[in-house]
Write a structure and sequence with these properties.
With 203 residues, this protein is α/β, with parallel strands linked by helices. The chain has 9 helices and 8 strands. Strand 6, helix 6 and strand 7 form a beta-alpha-beta unit.
């Protein structure tokens, strides 16, 4: 896994599908659908549309948290938080799929790899407005230590922007998770393309 890992969100004027489409047009090829509050049927409808877009652009599509949803639409994988379904259950229900786990510390990252995670979402690296219940940011030094001590790909997440992404890549991150930097931009396609160009230039 390498590149931008765009996590969808929505606002009064933009849907999850809008964000996904713009990110794909901007050359991102890793998409995560994250929605925690809607009815399952509504999430199924959105995720199905996003899957079609990802297939069109040959992009990897990950579902956040919802094993049932990931299985239902045959997504490429699922991303689990520390309090979500255990990885053993995910392996049983989604054989052969990508399983990512969140880690908010070095200990959690080491444990996530030991459990068999295919990649680790490590963060928050910086302060982030995207999650009200986010753990305190652990900074670049802890990120670098996580990268030194685990061998699976690391997706850095939390407050990552065009201005600070170089430092995150220098720490060794394989992927950069983007939410606000894409979904909050006036021109999401241009923002994604600019971020991808910066990523390529620094790698």
């Amino acid at each position: 896994m390498r590149g931008l890992y765009v996590i969808t969100t929505e606002s009064k004027t933009r849907t999850h599908v809008d964000v996904c489409r713009a990110a794909l047009e901007g050359t991102a090829r890793l998409i995560q659908y994250r929605e925690k509050h809607k009815a399952f049927d509504e999430m199924l409808k959105e995720a199905t549309e996003i899957k079609k877009l990802c297939k069109q652009y040959n992009a990897t599509f990950i579902i956040n948290d919802w094993l049932e949803l990931a299985e239902k639409i045959d997504a490429d994988g699922v991303h689990l938080g520390q309090d979500d379904s255990d990885i053993e259950k995910a392996r049983r229900e989604l054989p052969g799929k990508i399983i990512g786990l969140s880690a908010t510390s070095l200990d959690e990252a080491v444990e996530a790899e030991a459990k068999g995670a295919d990649y680790i979402g490590a963060g928050p690296v910086f302060e982030t407005p995207s999650k009200n219940d986010a753990a305190p940011p652990f900074g670049l030094n802890t990120l670098a230590e996580i990268i030194r001590q685990v061998s699976v790909p690391i997706v850095a997440i939390g407050g990552i922007t065009k201005e600070n992404m170089a430092s995150v890549l220098e720490a060794g991150a394989d992927c950069l998770a983007m939410i606000s930097a894409v979904a909050g931009a006036d021109d999401m396609v241009k923002a994604t393309r600019d971020l991808m160009n910066e990523f390529t230039a620094k790698c």
